[in-house]
């Protein structure tokens, strides 16, 4: 079974949308649809992989990891996410306690969620 998509409520839709539009670009995800209370992101094939909305109360902090193809994408995600208002929660680097090639970065988004970008090579 493959992962389909994930969505969650956010406190400030506009601020969150602006953050994710910028932060997800380095890992190949772009906004492809917006409704009155949701923004949808995908890899360019029209399918939603990730979305944010305001239809319910935001959850407590969650951890969400986005897979990157290269370490350079992880580095760019970190740089762009911080410039978009994210807070550092772990600079780019190898996390050997996960695996010898697990290269990741962690950023706190505008809602307090721990957002990760990871390259496994």
From TrEMBL:
Coiled coil: none
SUPFAM superfamilies with a match to the protein in the record: Glyoxalase/Bleomycin resistance protein/Dihydroxybiphenyl dioxygenase
Matching Gene3D superfamilies: 2,3-Dihydroxybiphenyl 1,2-Dioxygenase, domain 1 (3.10.180.10)
Xref: PROSITE patterns: VOC
Residue intervals of the VOC domain: 2-120
Protein known as: VOC domain-containing protein
Organism: Candidatus Adlerbacteria bacterium RIFCSPHIGHO2_12_FULL_53_18
């Amino acid at each position: 079974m493959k992962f389909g998509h994930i969505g969650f409520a956010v406190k400030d839709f506009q601020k969150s949308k602006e953050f994710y539009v910028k932060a997800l670009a380095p890992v190949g995800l772009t906004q492809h649809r917006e409704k009155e209370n949701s923004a949808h992101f995908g890899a360019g094939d029209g399918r939603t992989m990730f979305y944010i909305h305001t239809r319910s109360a935001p959850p407590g902090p969650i951890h969400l990891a986005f897979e990157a193809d290269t370490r350079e994408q992880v580095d760019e995600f970190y740089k762009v996410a911080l410039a978009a208002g994210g807070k550092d929660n772990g600079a780019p680097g190898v996390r050997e306690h996960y695996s010898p090639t697990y290269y990741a970065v962690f950023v706190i988004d505008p809602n307090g969620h721990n957002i990760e970008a990871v390259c496994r090579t």
